[in-house]
Please model this.
Amino acid sequence: MNREEFIKAYHDFIDTALGLAAKARREGLLALDGDVDREKAGQRDIFHYGLQFAVDGAASEIIDKIITNIAAQEKDEYTRLLKIIQKEAVMCIQQGYNPNLLHCVLNSYTDLPIVDEEARCGNDEDEDEAQYEHDEGRYDAEV
Model:
């Protein structure tokens, strides 16, 4: 995969991940069961494989270990980076990150600007409060 292919795949993936993160926050992880592509999961596609584990209630440590090992086998630099980003998306969706925060976390793996005008990586009190409530009083930095 070359850089241009990576950038296209990354932007396509971001749209999917952010949409599923929003759905999971509104409806819960189980609501994503129909969004898991079982064929891709069966082929160990990082995102769908990991999402399947998350929907099924697997512990985050197990999911992390499994999909980290799969991603580490990738030889192509850009493909491996995309898989690492997909792994991070699974982990963040499982933890209930708000989509804007997820966007910023995933983007931090790249040198690409955030082009989505609605993505705000700064302090947004409403989002901070929602994240705080979701974490039952524990901010990510405290976990």
Observations:
- The chain has a mean pLDDT of 86.
- The CA atoms of residues 100 and 132 lie 14 Å apart.
- Residues 3-142 form one domain.
